[in-house]
């Protein structure tokens, strides 16, 4: 009888163990399936059309952030039209007001490494360079010189080499008006340039040693007004999500698009309906309100620097020590997520890996400020 009980106990234990193993296997399979589903889940389709937010508040309460002043190692420079790219533990800063057009820092420690490039009229010297982001694993970025449309590669050590690319010349201009150039593949770039309708998004690429330039989309808002000055703004892309975005400087309007601009979603904060005939002419003077004038396009979200004031008002406020500017956060389908108010004024970029926002302030000898973004 005792032996029977022992055998029954052993059998029950084996049965329980077998059931537990099946449950564990089921959980593993379920977890794997969930993981596969989350990895393979496609980004939601972009719905085209016009969305109006006049007199509406799609962001909710504005989040006020206080910046932490950072001291960069051994580098003091005056800011002039800076831009920043973060890549592979390096911070590349383009600046027209220093001893060289590009400064290299280690990131996030901000230890200064060296200047790169020289200002001047000689061969391979710079007047007005622009940083060009890239996913090429061998490069930190490209530099594009606006005065002669020369393109330069910057490798991971910061060495610059000339890279021949046959750009189509900007319409009606001796000086290149190309802006926000993005490298999206081998010998393939997207950018904004002047066009017959004012401003347009272009794609330039090489195919079988032949150069091609394709106008992807006109950025014109009013068929009767085709001056390029009306439509200046900021351009960002996210090839992994098949998205582009353009934010206008002189209109509180953004356009979210797929990479071929077949579907376009227009976010309009100004009008109750989109009447192209009522759009005011932006003259670019200091009495004109500037809306968007900076963008940081990241993997998950796009962040747009927003003023909403005239440059004259900003100048008066800064003179009184009233430094502030806003940042609007959107997902890549144009959904407003959050709006921040920063207690400093300047040029910005976002590091989504650390949820930190950096601002470069032109009124400080050490221009770096760090803001911690709250979790979504």
Please describe what this structure looks like:
It is a single chain. The longest helix has 39 residues, at 2-40. 13% of the residues lie in helices and 40% in strands. The strands form 6 sheets. It has a 5-stranded mixed β-sheet with strand order 1-19-18-17-16, with no helix packed on it. It has a 5-stranded mixed β-sheet with strand order 2-23-22-21-20. The chain has a 4-stranded antiparallel β-sheet with strand order 3-26-25-24, with no helix packed on it. With 376 residues, the protein is mainly β. The termini are far apart. Strand 24 and strand 25 (356-360) form a beta hairpin. The chain has helices at residues 2-40, 311-319, and strands at residues 49-52, 63-65, 68-69, 83-87, 90-94, 102-106, 112-116, 129-132, 139-145, 150-155, 160-163, 179-185, 188-195, 198-207, 210-218, 233-238, 243-248, 253-257, 264-268, 290-297, 301-309, 325-331, 336-342, 347-351, 356-360, 368-372.
């Amino acid at each position: 009888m005792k032996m029977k009980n022992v055998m029954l106990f052993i059998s029950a234990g084996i049965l329980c163990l077998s059931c537990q193993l099946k449950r564990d296997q089921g959980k593993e399979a379920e977890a794997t399936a969930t993981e596969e589903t989350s990895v393979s889940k496609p980004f939601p389709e972009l719905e085209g059309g016009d969305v109006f937010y006049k007199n509406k508040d799609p962001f909710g309460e504005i989040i006020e952030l206080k910046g932490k002043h950072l001291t960069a190692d051994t580098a003091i420079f005056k800011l002039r039209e800076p831009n920043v790219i973060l890549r592979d533990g390096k911070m590349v800063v383009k600046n027209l007001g220093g001893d060289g057009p590009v400064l290299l820092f280690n990131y996030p420690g901000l230890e200064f490494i060296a200047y790169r490039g020289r200002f001047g009229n000689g061969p391979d010297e710079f007047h007005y360079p622009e940083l060009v982001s890239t996913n090429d694993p061998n490069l930190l970025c490209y530099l594009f010189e606006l005065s002669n449309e020369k393109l330069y590669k910057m490798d991971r050590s910061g060495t610059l080499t000339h890279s021949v690319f046959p750009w189509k010349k900007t319409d009606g201009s001796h000086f290149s008006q190309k802006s926000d150039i993005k490298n999206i593949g081998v010998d393939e770039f997207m950018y904004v340039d002047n066009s017959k309708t004012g401003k347009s998004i272009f794609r330039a690429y090489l195919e079988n040693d032949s150069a091609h330039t394709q106008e992807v989309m006109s950025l014109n808002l009013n068929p009767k007004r085709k001056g390029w000055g009306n439509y200046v703004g900021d351009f960002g892309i996210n090839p992994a999500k098949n998205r582009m975005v353009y934010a206008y400087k002189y209109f509180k309007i953004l356009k979210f698009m797929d990479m071929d601009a077949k579907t376009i979603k227009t976010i309009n904060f100004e009008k109750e309906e989109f009447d192209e005939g009522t759009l005011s002419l932006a003259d670019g003077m200091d009495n004109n309100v500037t809306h968007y004038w900076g963008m940081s396009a990241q993997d998950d979200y796009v962040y747009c620097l927003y003023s909403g004031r005239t440059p004259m008002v900003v100048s008066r406020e800064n003179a009184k020590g009233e430094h502030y500017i806003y940042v609007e956060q959107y997902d890549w389908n144009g959904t407003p997520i959050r709006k921040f108010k920063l207690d400093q004024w300047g040029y910005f970029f976002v590091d989504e890996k650390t949820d930190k926002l950096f601002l470069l302030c032109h009124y400080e000898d050490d221009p770096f400020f760090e803001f911690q973004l709250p979790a979504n």
